[in-house]
Design goal:
Order of helices and strands: HHHHHEHEEEEEEHHEE
CATH class of the largest domain: Alpha Beta
Largest sheet: 7 strands, antiparallel
Shape: elongated
CATH architecture of the largest domain: 2-Layer Sandwich
Strand content: 15-25%
Helix content: 40-55%
CATH superfamily of the largest domain: START domain
Radius of gyration: 25 Å
Strand order of the largest sheet: 1-7-6-5-4-3-2
CATH topology of the largest domain: Alpha-D-Glucose-1,6-Bisphosphate, Chain A, domain 4
Distance between the termini: 38 Å
Length: about 350
């Protein structure tokens, strides 16, 4: 899985990357402080995969409703309000959540789609019993049955088509992990920008997820990064390529908590007006399947890895140009924007 989105551009200018093949073009002559943001073109999913993703999210949404609001869902379905029915509704919600996570976390979700089909048949049987009970609201139950039949048809269609002839992506994605490409213009000479990044111990100054980077020997370093729930992850990295004032490439080695690899390139901006910094990063989120599903959930709240890398590059630009990271109150709390203030 990769975090690969269409090449985007912020604050004016044109992309230095073509969408197909990431072939470089000559940068446009814009202000040296113009910021450009890029990512590898997103793999275009076919209609079968899109339908499967929709059913996965639908299953998670329905499951959450059943677990958190079982009595409300039961009322909508015309089911009698009782403790036994509440427990049953929560159990059905757990089943929906399991199916939804299975669909979203697997590149071949056919078994999980068929599990949804089986669940739909079970729901129809339960609703049929409800409809035969005169104490329940038959009108609501009939409406619920019609909805389950519609979803059942979609589940069967998706399971059959994914199983028989899945659509291949237009651009292939890596088997696992996140892939992010971002760029920014820094109003400093190439040599100064390269030298600052080349000292890896400077990286935590603008990468907020990093706690520390320690250079252990020539070409090797030890990294400590923040993880959820107040924990930390660590890994050793080796510099695989180092071309002064042009490129730095690295990858983790050994039994790393987070496998990662990447490179950063430094290109002179036309007219000696700064440096274009291009970052290409791949990594495997910790947590296996849960981590990959977590990335998809984060994208719903606009906190995907690409956004975090972009924020780090903005901070990198400020450290080099201003000497410190400048924050506005709006970066800390939601609401109306406020004048920027130096970080304290």
């Amino acid at each position: 899985m990769g975090t690969v989105e269409s090449g985007t551009l912020q604050q004016g200018g044109t992309s230095d990357w073509q969408d197909a093949g990431a072939t470089r073009r000559q940068p446009s002559r814009r202000s040296a402080t113009t910021t450009r943001t890029y990512q590898q073109p997103r793999a275009q999913k076919g209609p079968n995969e899109q339908l499967a993703d929709f059913l996965g999210w639908f299953s998670i949404g329905l499951g959450l409703s059943q677990v958190l609001m079982p009595r409300v869902v039961a009322k909508i379905c015309g089911i009698e309000n009782s403790d036994d029915n509440t427990s049953l509704m929560r159990a059905l919600g757990v089943r929906e959540l399991t199916s939804g996570v299975g669909i979203l976390a697997n590149k071949k979700p056919t078994p999980w789609l068929w599990s949804r089909v089986a669940g739909d048949v079970m729901d129809l049987a339960l609703l049929g019993n409800v409809a035969r009970n005169g104490e329940n609201h038959r009108g609501r139950t009939s409406f619920a049955i019609a909805n389950v039949l519609s979803v059942l048809a979609l589940d069967v269609l998706a399971a059959q088509q994914i199983g028989s002839s899945p659509n291949a992506p237009v651009v292939s994605e890596p088997e696992d992990g996140i892939h992010v490409r971002k760029s920014i213009t820094v109003n400093k000479p190439v040599e100064a920008v390269y030298n600052f990044w080349h000292d890896f111990e400077n990286l935590p100054r603008f990468m907020r997820h990093l706690e520390s980077v320690t250079v252990t020997s020539d070409g090797r370093s030890h990294w400590v990064a923040k993880a959820p729930a107040g924990k930390s992850v660590e890994w050793d990295a080796i510099t695989t390529r180092d071309v002064p004032n042009e490129l730095i490439a690295w990858r983790s080695e050994g039994d790393a908590d987070v496998y990662n690899e990447g490179e950063v390139r430094f290109d002179p901006y036309p007219g000696n007006r700064g440096t274009m910094v291009h970052v290409d990063l791949r990594y495997e989120p910790p947590g296996g399947i849960a981590g990959r599903v977590g990335v998809k959930l984060a994208k719903l709240f606009r906190r995907e890895p690409g956004q975090e890398v972009q924020d780090d590059l903005f901070a990198f630009k400020q450290v080099l140009e201003v000497g410190e990271i400048v924050l506005s109150d709006s970066t800390v709390r939601k609401g109306m924007p406020h004048p920027a203030q130096p970080e304290r």
